[in-house]
TrEMBL record:
Family annotation (SMART domains): NGN
Domain of life of the source: Bacteria
Name of one Pfam family that matches: NusG
Protein name according to UniProt: UpxY family transcription antiterminator
Taxonomy of the source species: Bacteria, Pseudomonadati, Bacteroidota, Cytophagia, Cytophagales
Stretches assigned to the NusG-like N-terminal domain: 1-98
Length: 162
């Protein structure tokens, strides 16, 4: 049975690793965000990885070593001495957030102490999330198994304690 594993890549190699994995028939996912970059003569929006130096691979346990055929793959990410596994629902949630929201303002942050809430409006209605912080129209939602949070620009979202 295939599972989503997290791999650590060389810096700035995330998208290249994902493309190379596809060439050897390994499903991967490298979520990206748009960021405005300033050069001396112009500004340009570029796609950068949402999780720096991380990529997700959907692979069976017995085939895990195949990813090392790709230049740029450093190692698997481990949690409690086992390869970190991300639930299918969390990968789908990342895809949905990136698809549904203006993700030009998404930032990654480290884990912090937080409160568990239910979202009562918007596209994530009735979803449970761990909210780290709410500042104006910015809502910081935590993805627990990844050890990351997503900062999403969202207005008119009602929250209720679990």
């Amino acid at each position: 049975m295939k599972k989503w594993f997290v791999i650590y890549t060389k810096p700035r190699q995330e998208k290249k690793v994902a493309n190379e994995l596809a060439k050897i028939s390994i499903e991967s996912y490298c979520p990206t965000k748009k960021v405005e970059r300033q050069w001396s003569d112009r500004k340009k929006k570029v796609e950068t990885p949402l999780f720096t130096s991380y990529c997700f691979v959907h692979i069976e346990e017995k085939d895990r070593n195949k990813v090392f055929q790709v230049p740029g793959v450093v190692r698997y990410v481990f949690w409690l001495k086992k390869p970190a596994i991300v639930r299918d629902e969390e990968i789908e949630e990342i895809k949905r957030w990136l698809n549904d929201y203006n993700h030009e303002y998404i930032e990654t942050r480290k884990f912090q102490d937080n409160e568990r809430l239910i979202i009562k409006s918007g596209l994530l209605i009735d979803q449970q999330a761990t909210v780290v912080k709410q500042n104006g129209n910015q809502l910081i939602l935590q993805l627990e198994n990844l050890g990351f949070t997503l900062c999403v620009s969202q207005t008119d979202m009602l929250l209720s304690p679990v």
